[in-house]
Amino acid sequence: MRTMHKDAHAVRAARKDLELAARIRELRRSLGLSQATLAELVGIDQSNVSRWESGAIPDAPHIRRMAELAEVHPAQFRYGDTSLETGAGDPAPPSETVAVVGYVGAGQEVLAYDDHALGGGLEEVSAPEGVGESSIVAVRVRGDSMHPMRDGWLLFYRREDHGVPDDCLSRLCIVKVADEGPILVKELRRGYSANHFVLSSWNAPPIEDARLDWAAPVLSIRPC
Questions:
Q1: Which of 173, 176, 213, 172 shows the shortest CA–CA distance to 195?
Q2: 199-217: per-residue pLDDT in tens?
Q3: pTM metric for this prediction
Q4: Which residues pair with 126 in a beta bridge?
């Protein structure tokens, strides 16, 4: 069953990467630019734009620059329309529920401990359809520091055990920083040393070379 979950995550991640490639290509064409001209505006080589349009993932500063050109928020440019759930289908019937185990607030820190392994939670909400039934939990957004996510929105994820699965890389994730560090929502990239990671966000400087207890991809975003 775990292998099936990982396969489904990999398929969703690959689809999102192709959608980003299409947005970059559409941005360039809508502005009437060649790859070389877009590269100049972003501050990189033409070969990078070619790689991006084939599915490679730009670094966060380049995403921000292209989002400026597209006149949208960087998160919307990176992940697409965040007013819709990123999981498959509509929300599940109210009889299928999951626990809300914390809040995501200013600075992207989760303001309550992820204790779902103990069966606890702050409230119960209907589960998103299409992401399975194993260990799904949610955190609720507090405040507006995660624009375009707004106060009350829900982020759903699955944490089956400790560690950082490969399908977390270049994705929006809930992460637990090691050594009793905070729980954050960040985009993960490989760090500069083994088992370390760069934690990026749209409205704060990246956290460089962090060790993590665990990470879990955000499977669905639900506006409220």
A1: 213
A2: 887 767 888 889 999 898 8
A3: 0.65
A4: 97
